[in-house]
Amino acid sequence: MPEAAEFDALTAEFYEGWLHYHPDLALRAGVPVAGRLLPVQEDEDLLGLKGWLEELLLGLDEIDFHALDADRQLDWELLAGAARVEHRELSGGGWRRRDPLGYLPLAVLEWLSGTPDAAPHGTLARLLGELPEHLRQAQVQLRVAAPGLAPLLVRVAAREAQRACDHLRVLARGPRPHRDGDGHAGLAQPLECAAAALAGYHHFLTDELAPRARGALGRGAEHLGLRLCEVHFIECDPAAGCEPITRALEWAQAAVTDADATPAGGQAPVSAEGGYHLAATDAARGHRLPRRFANDASWALSWQLYLSGRGAPGGAPGSRLAAPREQLLLARLDLDLHRGRIDDEQALVSLARLGLEGPAAEARVAQLARHPGDALAGVLGWRLLEQVRDRQGAGAGPGAPAWRALLASYGAIPLPLVLRYGLGQAPWQAAWDAVLGT
Question: How far is 196 from 161, CA to CA, in rounded Å?
Fold first, then answer.
């Protein structure tokens, strides 16, 4: 079988099985779900998922990477990286079982209840019906893991459970069009039952788990490095030394400080037509399954920070820099938290200096703990974009229409892959060396 056909068959077969273990993601991707709608928790299912990932990795190793076209090579990298990380997490002591937020299907619940026609008829009712048992099983898992739970994660999860409970009760007791969501009447009782399960989960977290939770919040430098490399395609190893990352963050801080001294409106947004030749946009690329499930933190944050740093003429002094300053601090906290240099209380003190306190600050720190490397990848990607612009000129840089088309054409995937595949190896390597080279 030709390599391309073999890769396509392997990819299709993998996702057919993988989405069985992640039905909530299948729903959001528009893939039909015949069985359960909530993620698996049982040991037997998790072992099956681990084995499925191992089969994928073995299959990818048997494919000649260099015989694939560029689009398939990119997908190969995404697939292999995500599988390695998930497999390591399943093998490394079960972090997901120490994450009380991870048991709350908040995204899919809000999506279904907010857009009842987005999924097949009856989907919301099915999910609501599964939620009580799902949360009961979660309590069994968390009760065993209680001493290793991070107190901050327990507090944030309790607040999110209460928020979801309130949301469902508003729907249940609201006007008839809300009660009859999902295309049929009789949804009020499932909404109330699911809300009661969420209230019970909140009570369990606050009264039973919170007094016993004593675990650390960070995931460790090794895991941070794994995610930077395999999820964000930033090949830095914090466990072996952080000099390149620290230097890149210092340069980012200097850039923010220099821009802060520039009067607002003194630097217009970049909008010139580019002179650098780029491939025509192919929207179908972004719909390939490996890209639809890729981590897009560096892609979204980098572009947001790039535009925020440029600002708009006539804005309030310093307003265009609020996002870069905050994200730069989050990146530093991301690095220090997972290296064990700070704890949650120190992270909250740092956020308070930016005026972010209380539940909002705790939610930010929880996000850093649950997604190591995301904030850091956003800032490093921003600096890479700046380097590309500096080296190619404003007319051909990331603000140009051709660049916006490039960023969109590959889908919402890690920015380093967009730059490497979109620019070519030499321009990409030059930008990389300027930001993270030794």
Answer: 10
